[in-house]
Each structure stands twice: as C-alpha cells, then as structure tokens.
Amino acid sequence: MGEDITVREIGIYLLNRVEVTLKDDSRAEGILQNIAAETITVEGREIMLSDVADIRLAGELTDYNVMRDTGMIGNFTFAPEACRDAAELELMRYGDFACTVSCHLKLASGKICADDIRLVSHIHKICAEKLSRTAAIYRFFDGTFLVGRLQQDRTGMLEQSGGGQVPVDFAGVKEIFPLPETNDSLHVTMKDGSCREGVVSAVTDTMFVLIGEGVSMIPFADMQEIRYCGKVVRVREPGSRGKTDTWKIAVGSRDAEDGFWCRVPEHSGAAQIGVGDQVSFVPGITDCEWIAKDVRLVDAAGKEEPAEAGYTGRGIILFFPNALRTNGFIGNCYVSQNYAKMENAGLPRGNVMFSQEQIDFGFKPGNIYVVSYTCAKEPGEVVQEAVSVTLEKMYPYADYAKVWIDGNGEVKMLPVSVFYAKKFVGQDVEVLLSNGERTAGKLKEYTDEKLTLLAGDDGAEETVLQTGDIAQVRYFGSITAYRTDNGTGYISGEYWFHVNNLTDAGEASQLVLGRRVSFTLEQTLKGKLCAAKDVALISEKTVIAEEKQEQSKPERLRGYIVKYMIKQPVSAGFGFIVPEEELEAHLEDKEGTVYFKQTDIDCETMPKLNTKSYYYEVLYTPYTLHGKTCAKDVKIGAGHPYPEKKSTAPVAVTAVTKKIVSKTLPLVEYLEAEEARYVGASPKLGIISLYNGHYALISDCYINKKLVTDQEYAPDGAIAIFNPELAQIETEETIKTAKHCYLVKYVPGGTMINEKTGMEHPSVDYNYPVLVLASFAKNQYICLKIEADALQVRKVEQVMSTLGTAVPEQVDFDIPELCSGESVIFEMMDSTAAYHVIDSVGDDFYRVNAQKFNAELG
Predict the structure, then answer these.
(1) Of 795, 793, 786, which Cα lies nearest the Cα of 670?
(2) Which pLDDT score, from 0 to 100, does residue 845 have?
(3) What is the rounded distance in angstroms from the CA atom of residue 454 to the CA atom of residue 443?
(4) How far is CA 549 from CA 174, 314, 546, in A?
(5) What's the confidence (pLDDT) of residue 503?
(6) For the chain, how long is the longest CA-to-CA vector?
(7) How many CB atoms lie within 10 A of CB 716?
(8) Which of 208, 224, 543, 770 could pair covalently with 203 via S-S, beta carbons 3.0-4.6 A apart?
C-alpha cells in the first residue's frame, strides 16, 4: 500500500473481514462496514482515512488447484507468485494444512485477485478414519517425531505400540505419512545428503530396514525426505475440460483402499500418467484421504526418466530447493520483495525446474544467482526439467531491486538506489554514473528508463540520464530518531541506519535529531526491507540562518509533559502535554491534552523521560490534525518531581536486617486493564525476564537463581517468545531486564523459531499490544509465579529495629554506570573524598580495592 491510501483503494475491501494497520502501528480487525470521504468503519469503530497505513483482507485458504497452480482465498483467486515466501506456498499447495492468511486485493484484467499473501497461522489436517486404522509417523517442525495410531474420539491422543498414549499438537506437525510396511518400495534422502533406496524388510517405532544394493538401517530421526514407489491402479473420469484430474496409486502389498490419491502439477511430467505406470511420490494426508505429492514418472527399471539436453540458456534462480520444496526454479527475471511491493506486482515464476543434486554450490539468502542451464527444449508455458545447472555469477541482494536476462541473453540490473528515486521526485539528488562522473540537481521525473534532473542557478537546465548508465543515486534527509545505546536510528522517519553505515566513523558523536545527512539505499531481509547506507553528515547551517528560521516559526507555547509512553523500538514513542495554565488540574491524573510523537522532539540528544516520577517543562508549536491539538518542534527543559505529602516529624533511626516473606497478590485489576483494546481476544498475563532488540521471552515464572536454593520454585517451561521490533510494546519506562522483570498483558498467537536452538515456541498476536503493567527489581525477589488470577511472590524485605530519633534527609542519588577498571573519586556522605579503581559493580554497590562500598553512601 502507498503512504496515502485513497477511498478507491480501500473500496475493494468493503463488507469483507480486514486487518487495518494505522500509522501509529496500532491495528483494527473486523468487517469493513462503511467508507466515507474521510473515514472508514471497522466493526463499529470509526477510523480516519488519513491514519490508515495499510489494509489487508483476512481470510482462510479455501482451495488450491495443483493442476492449474492457482489458489482461492474465499472468492478471490491467486497465482503462486502472489505468495512472497516459497516455504509458505508449499504449506498451501496440497491441501494438507488448514491455513489462515492475509493479503492485498487488486483489480487486474477485470478480475479481483489476491496479492502479497502472508501466512498468519497453519495447522495440519487429519483424517481420523484413516489414521485410526494405520500406524503413522508424525514429524514436527522442530525435527522430533511420534509414531502410533490416532484415537477416533478426537481427543488428539496417539496410541503407541507399547500401550501408552501421548497427545499430539497438530499446529506443530510438519508432515504425516504412514509407517512403512514390509515390501514397501522406498527412496529415502538422509539429513547428511546421502540417499538410500530399496524394499522394506522390517519396521519398529524408531527405524526400519531397507534392502537394496546393501542392507541399511534407517532411523526416522535421520530422514530428510521419504518417497514411496507405487503403481497407478485407477484414474478418475476426466472433468468437463477433458483433462484427467486425479490418479490412485497402490503401494507394496497394501489394500487398494489405502492407496494414495494425487493431483499432480503439469510441470512434473505427470500429464502422460496412465493406469499401470510406475511412479514415486511424497506421501501426505488431508481431512479426507491419503494423498501423493510431487509425483514423478519412473521407468520399468525403477529409475526416474532422464531428460536429454537439447537447449542451452541463461537464467536467474528464483527458488532454491529446501526442506519443504524438493525442486528449485529458474526464470528470466528476478525482482525483490521491495520491487514487487512498490510496483504492486507479483513475483516472477520460473519455467525451468532443477533439483538439489544438480547444483554444486550452496545457497545464501543475501545473493542473486545467475546460472546457465541445459534442458530438453526451450522453456515456455510448459516448465522444463534441467539436465545441468552451472553457476555463472552472484550479485548482492542488497544492491539490486531487479535483475533480468534481455532478448540477447545479456544480464541487466536495476540498482536499489535508482529504483527508489520515484519516492524522491521534487527533491535534490546526487547521481553517480557508471563511468565515474557525478551530477546533481532536483529530480523532476523518474521512469524505468530515465531520470530527469533540473540544474543551474534558475533550475531551468534539464539533464536526462538513462537508468542503465546510473551506478548509484544519493538522497538527502534529516535524522528523526537515534539511539546511542545501540547506534541505530532513522532518516526522515523511514530509512533505518546503523553507525557502521557512516562513511566517516568519527562523525558518530555528531549524530543528533534534526541533523541533515546524505545517503544511498540498500535492501534488507527484515523490517521494512530497506535501509540507508553510506550515510554522510552535511555541514550545519550558520547561527544567523537558524535565527532567521526561528523568526519565521509560528507562535510557541509553554507547557509540561505529564505522560510519555515508550513503544519499542524507541523511535515510536509518544506522549501528552498540558498547557502551562492547566498544569494544576492534571498533576494527579497525568492526562495531557496535546499529543506529540518522539519524532516531534527537537533536542540534540533524546532525554530519558520518567513520567512516573517527574513532569517536564517544554516549549512547543501547536497545530491541528484531524480536529485534535498536536505539538511539534518540542523542546524539553527541566524535570520536576510530582508533589508528595511530606512529614517533618522526627522519625526513628533504625538498624536494618532482612527476612524472606511470601505474599499472594490478586491480578484481577491487571487483567481488566485497557479491556477495550483486547475486544474479541483472550489476553493473558506473563512475566518478561529476558529482552533485547530482536528477541523477548514471556514466562509465567521468574526465578532469581542467585537467591533460590531449592527446587520448589523451578519454572514449568510454559513460555512465549516474540520479536520486539514487530510487537506493539507500551511502557512508561525503557525495558531493561538486567535489573528488572516486568508483568505484562498480551494475547497469545502464532509461533516463532528460537534461532539459537531451532525450536519452535508459541508467540504473541502482534495485532494486540504487549502492555507493561508493573516492574519488579530482580535483586528484591526470589520468585514471582503467576497461578490462576494471582501472583505468588517470595521476596526479601527489610526489617527495622528502633535505635533513636532523627529528622529524615531527602536524598536524590542516581548510581552512575561505571565499568570495571575505571579510576574514580567518590565524595562520601561525611564530605571526605576517596580515590578508588573499580573492581566490579553490583546492583547497589561498587567493589573497589577488594572492598564493597554501598553506592547510596557516596
């Protein structure tokens, strides 16, 4: 979707279930009930059209015709290139998974079709009747497997050969196939890449014996793929178009009723299959019957028919073989996901098929592969099988939006920085040509063939550059967000960068909000799929120029920030201001009346705002957006603590000891927090104890391993993991799990792979916020555990014993962040000074010269 969505673009979704993403990253889901000039209505909620960033159809995959290679989402058809992820397409192709998807809709050639399809969730289908009569292997995405017969009572329990029963989580099942039987003819690919083929002679719950050129024991855990060999015994009557739709294949000595039905893609060469032919296939199951996938015709000797090379060509690998896709595909044109998204175009389909065994080079996601190949005849509408594939050259994915083979067989490329020029029409750019020359000017026009620049003092000198002659285009913008803790930020609110992308690393200290920079662009494999690189700082304006600019600004007002929310990443924060005259009325409720975003803050460095304890002076420029008062150019001043009732009466001077106490805290009020934002969902409470920029963990239990000594408080392992970059995290303080853990409210949904372990875990529904409700200092708690609607707490508390009386002294002291090895001078509470070298740092003390000094004393 474009940045500004029109009524016409949204109208195609009317009366359908949709998922709406707003520009503040919040979401709304439901039936699109009405569209007006400036608003839309989703499930009774009225949304300003100008606030909509994207809208997608939400639905179920209702059909996929393997022969025609087209699918259906409700009443809308789609071609395979509309699915951006090849692995997700494989889960949709054969009908063995129930898939929930989201997609865009587009009108093409007088027909509404689905595009940009994303798999939201999936679960393997089962046929209880078949699985209750036959022992089967259930292989999971994490590589584990179970063997047994499924009970017909629909409890999901699997009866194993030893008499025991185990539950099956079908959301984690990758494939289901019948347990091999004696005399089954199999072809097995192992995880180490080797292959075995032969006839089964014996089977257990963990392995089987295969008799071929030798005797092989095949453990189920070591198999990468299993192919059955069988004979076509029945052909269903041709359909109305005169084409055979399905075949039935019998395997070994099995009952014919337990055969496998198949609908084979035309590119497999199965269009000529007839009764009596020998075939090989990958077994599977739907909710109706056993099925055969990826069927291949074999000759009488049991070997697949080799093709003869009669054509040599050059192409680009569009899909590589992987664990879910047996074959890869070569085509004449490669486009990136960015290109397909911005051009509203599908990803090209290949017309030459090849296998993993035909290539002698590895695949890395960061490259584009140009190859030469041979096949039986020139590829066309009918896909050809490659006889050989040879690597010619690799191009970095980050640099090219489109690579194609022209009519003369030459490789042509469209650099990413050139392709993005369409978003900078009317702005100044700098162009580097392939011959090394440079030219600059205002971009007047962009097409796929040329760029038109305006130069000269009066801007009347027009220069036309052919895109094929351009090596790179540089653009100009301002830094709108920057984090010094991890060196990342955004340019113009859209283009992510890292300090490693600076042309001069010494300029990192000058990165502040509002600083002008020049940059070019590259593609990435995550986030917004695009990032800035070769970032260079532009000389700042003179003070006189800045003063003149200040004089031209509209009236600025004084006020106070009373509430600030941090949404990870930090550049997505927002807050509320109260005008100066309204401060007294809002000191208690902390409800501001003027909205602002972090990108509206005009400070050299982003201050750390803690509106739990302080309110902050500000100068801001007011403006109206959609009838609401907002603030921009926000300059933040001093912070003031919220007033508290203080007692001046003498208090007891105490000696402090510690004891361990257990408490039960009710969680009802936390479950009811922000209920309106979780309508239609089933939110849960959890504890975040591990959090970084790309990975976070939610558990029902936190254990302080430094304090616990027994097993009573061992966690039960019920966790969810999620990517903070995708989640709507709302908190009034930065999440730092080094010293704190956090009680959060979230909605479970989907799954996520732990990259370190390869294990799949439950995740969160990114359509709903992850709301931080409370924080706990880790050094004060032994255990936090959520049970039912209560939080079981075991903590360390201080016990006071009276020694005398004194007047309390207010101390406001922040523990500096010091590192081991630093030399420091402490000013102690008795006004003496002490010089020390830091050995180590604890939660509330420094260890110096082999001694502990309480940080609160200095």
Answers:
(1) 786
(2) 60
(3) 6
(4) 62, 58, 5
(5) 86
(6) 102
(7) 9
(8) 208
pLDDT at 543: 33
The set of residues, in sequence order, having a beta carbon less than 8 Å from that of 822 and lying 6+ positions away, is 837, 838
pLDDT attached to residue 371: 93
Helix (H) / strand (E) containing 699: strand 696-699
User: CA-based angle 82:86:87, to the nearest 5?
Assistant: 130
Token pair, residue 522, equals 């590259």
Which distant-in-sequence residues (6+ apart) come within 8 Å of 148 by Cβ?
135, 136, 138, 158, 159, 160, 161, 166, 205
User: Residue 826 in contact with residue 858, Cβ under 8 Å?
Assistant: yes
- Distance (Å, whole) CA 411 – CA 402: 11
pLDDT of the residue at 317: 92
Question: How confident is the model at residue 825, as a pLDDT?
Answer: 61
Closest CA to 149 of 139, 162, 157, 158: 158
Tokens at residue 62, please?
A: 């209702």
Per DSSP, the three-state class of 598 is helix
Inter-residue contact 396 to 366 (CB < 8 Å): yes
Q: List strand residue ranges (DSSP E) for 538-641, in order.
A: 557-565, 574-579, 594-597, 614-625, 628-641
pLDDT at 549: 46
At position 57, the amino acid (one-letter code) is: L
Do 533 and 522 meet the contact criterion of CB atoms below 8 Å apart? Answer: yes
Give the span between the Cα atoms of 476 and 417, in whole angstroms. 12
**Residue 339, CB half-sphere, CA atoms under 13 Å: how many?**
23
The answer to whether the CB of 577 falls within 8 A of the CB of 590 is no
- Which residues are registered as beta bridge partners of 140? 173
Name the E strands within 417-573: 428-433, 438-446, 450-455, 461-466, 470-483, 488-491, 495-498, 516-523, 530-537, 557-565
DSSP code for 611: T
Q: Which of 297, 295, 293, 306 is nearest to 278 (CA)?
A: 297
**Is the previous residue joined to 554 through a cis bond, with omega within 30 degrees of 0?**
no
Q: What residues in the chain have per-residue pLDDT under 50?
A: 2, 238-244, 265-271, 300-303, 541-552, 569-570, 647-656, 710-716, 801-815, 850-858
- Torsion region of 69: left, alpha or beta (phi above 0 gives left; psi -120 to 50 gives alpha): left
Q: Which amino acid is at 485?
A: D
Give CA–CA dist 631/563, Å, rounded: 14
Compute the Cα dihedral for 479, 484, 487, 488 and give only its sign.
negative
Compute how many other C-beta atoms are within 10 angstroms of the C-beta atom of residue 63: 12
The CA-atom distances, in angstroms, between 587 and each of 64, 254, 562, 574 are: 60, 79, 8, 19
Q: What is the DSSP letter of 459?
A: S
pLDDT for residue 243: 44
Copy the structure tokens of residue 597.
């975003």
As given in the structure block, the two tokens for residue 75 are 């009443």
Burial 197-229 (b: 16+ CB within 10 A, else e): bbbbeebeeebbbbeeeeebebebeebebbbbb
What's the rounded Cα separation, in Å, for the pair 732 and 564? 6
C-alpha closest to that of 749 among 762, 731, 730:
762
Across 320-437, where does the E strand assignment appear? 327-331, 333-335, 352-355, 367-375, 384-396, 400-405, 411-415, 428-433
| Tokens matching residue 271 | 């269009």
Scanning 637-721, the segments in alpha helix (DSSP H) are 668-671
CA atoms within 13 A on the CB side of 583: 14
% helix, strand, coil for the chain, step of 5: 15, 50, 35
Please state, in angstroms and rounded to a whole number, the distance separating the CA atoms of residues 478 and 449.
29
Q: Are 326 and 282 in contact (CB under 8 A)?
A: yes
**Neighbour count for residue 444 (Cβ, 10 Å):** 15
Note the pTM of the prediction, 2 decimals. 0.41
Tokens read off for 424: 């900078």
Alpha carbon dihedral 152, 158, 160, 165, in 10-degree steps, equals -110
